[in-house]
Structure formats: C-alpha cells, structure tokens
C-alpha cells in the first residue's frame, strides 16, 4: 500500500520503518528541517516528503503527532484528499504535555475530537502500545502470546485494511468498536500499554471505566515521574497492569 505518515517520532518513525520492511511504499514528514528529515527517512528506509506531498497519492495517511499539534497543522490539509483514503490517528491526550483542550477534558472522546479538527473520519490505531512494544514486541501471525492492538472506527472496510497493517507490524488486531468507543483504549484504561493478547484485550476493553480513565492516567504520570530513576519498559508495563483491579494480566 502507499502510506503517508505525518510525524516521525517514537511511534510514527517506528510505524514507517515497519511498514517499509513489510514492503509498503512509505513517505514521511515532520515539523523539522528538510535535510534532517531526509537523513532520518534514509535510516528508516522510506522517502522524505513535505506536508503537502505526504498526503498526495496515498491509500493511508497516518497522523502521529502530539494531540496539541493537531490544530497547528495547515488548515484544510485534507480537504482534497479523496474520501477513500484512510486517515489513522495514533494520538493520546496528556494534559501535562498537550495543555488544556477543554473539550477532551470535558470527556469528549480523544479521536472524535481529532476527527472534528481534521473534518473527516479517522481510524484510531497504534495508540495502545508503548513505542518500545511497537518496535520490539512484534511476532509472526499465530505465535504464542502475540500482543494485540485495538482498532476503532466507523468504517468496517477501513478498519480491516488497518488491521492488515497491524498484522504486518507483528501484532494481532482487535476491533474495539466505533470511534465513539475508542475511549476504551485511551490512557488510564486496562487496555492501555499493558501488552495483552487478543482475548485479554477484548476483556480489558470491556472492563474499561470511562470516568476513571483520566484520573488513572494522571495518577500513572505522577507515580512514574516520582520514581528516583526512569523505570524500565517492563516496569512501566507491570505498573500499568497493576493500575487496574480488572486488568486481565493482573487477576
Ligand atoms: N511514545 C509512545 O509510546 C506512544 C504510544 C502510543 C501512542 N503515542 C501517541 O502517538 C503520538 C506521537 O507520539 P510519539 O511518541 O511518536 O511523539 P514524538 O516522539 O514526540 O514525535 C512527534 C512527531 O510529530 C511531529 N510533529 C509535531 N508537530 C508537527 C506538525 N505540526 N507537523 C508535522 N509534524 C509534526 C514531530 O516533528 P519533529 O520530529 O520535527 O519534532 C515528531 O516527528 C502522540 O499523540 C502520542 O501520545 C505515543
């Protein structure tokens, strides 16, 4: 497939590398200097593009920037992108990083807000695993304990296509419902960054409690940042699993 990725950070850059390795045709952009972008794209095995070009002649656009950056994207960025092009949102809202976004703070589902900012439907995916998991936790289809990723959206056909890309990245995909249900894998839920198998993830999505999620999200940031040294990846995953009484891996 032809894939354009906006954002080349921990998530966007890793997705780019994995999609190129799986044989997809990938171009990327970020907010930085063109020469640095070209060098990074070379390392990732993809093509550097401008923000204008990255969305041209592609099947899928993956938006992988901090939530706060979304309204700073060029106005009408996607206005001329054909309807059948799938737009994927990987974002997670963190007030300490993304400042106050009143609608999200008032419980608007994060990717519903993103969809409104962009003025078109989005699929939420690649948001409920840590970048380290995405980079190094993939396995072959059918492998024991293969980690699963949640995919939400209102277009079943688009979700199936994104599920294929998730499989190419080394993960099982679990359909988490319509975009309005995607709060079930936002920060502060049992599905979030806990490295579950598909069956466990289905259970975790069902166990999520909407009102608790922002409180647990903020507690996790406070707890993890109060540690004397930065926790290891495995410690973060274990912490996240322990945050919920009903996490399938903690019961
Ligand atoms: N890190 C994780 O473990 C993780 C896991 C799941 C989901 N997520 C979510 O996925 C999103 C990306 O996360 P990340 O960790 O990859 O972030 P990151 O490492 O900070 O990278 C963000 C990328 O967005 C680019 N960017 C920012 N504003 C832009 C703009 N206006 N136009 C074009 N590019 C822009 C940055 O460009 P420059 O490179 O030029 O600065 C950078 O490449 C966030 O919403 C995050 O919450 C993160």
TrEMBL record:
InterPro entries: D-isomer_DH_CS1, NAD(P)-bd_dom_sf, P5C_Rdtase_cat_N, Semialdehyde_DH_NAD-bd, STEAP_metalloreductase. Residues 2-107 form the Semialdehyde dehydrogenase NAD-binding domain. It comes from the Bacteria. One of its GO terms (molecular function) is NAD binding. Pfam families: F420_oxidored (PF03807). Keywords: Oxidoreductase. This is 3-hydroxyisobutyrate dehydrogenase. It comes from Flavobacterium pectinovorum.
């Amino acid at each position: 497939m032809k894939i354009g990725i906006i954002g080349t950070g921990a998530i966007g850059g890793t997705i780019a590398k994995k999609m190129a390795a799986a044989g997809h045709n990938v171009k990327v952009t970020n907010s930085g200097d063109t020469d640095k972008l070209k060098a990074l794209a070379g390392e990732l095995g993809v093509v550097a593009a401008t923000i204008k070009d990255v969305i041209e002649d592609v099947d899928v656009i993956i938006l992988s920037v901090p939530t706060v950056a979304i309204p700073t994207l060029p106005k009408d960025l996607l206005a001329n992108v054909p309807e059948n092009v799938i737009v994927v949102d990987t974002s997670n809202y963190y007030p300490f990083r993304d400042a106050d976004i009143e609608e999200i703070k008032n419980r608007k589902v994060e990717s519903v807000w993103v969809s409104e900012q962009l003025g078109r439907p989005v699929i939420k995916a690649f948001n409920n695993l840590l970048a380290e998991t995405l980079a190094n936790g993939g396995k072959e289809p059918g492998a024991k304990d293969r980690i699963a990723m949640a995919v939400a959206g209102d277009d079943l056909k688009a979700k199936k296509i994104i599920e294929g890309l998730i499989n190419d990245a080394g993960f099982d995909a679990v359909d988490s419902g319509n975009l309005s249900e995607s709060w079930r894998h936002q920060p502060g839920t049992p599905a979030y960054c806990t490295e579950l198998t598909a069956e466990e993830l289905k259970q975790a999505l069902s166990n999520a409690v909407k009102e608790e999620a922002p409180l647990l999200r903020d507690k996790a940031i406070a707890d993890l940042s109060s540690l004397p040294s930065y926790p290891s990846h495995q410690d973060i995953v274990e912490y996240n699993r322990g945050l919920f009484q009903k996490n399938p891996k903690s019961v």
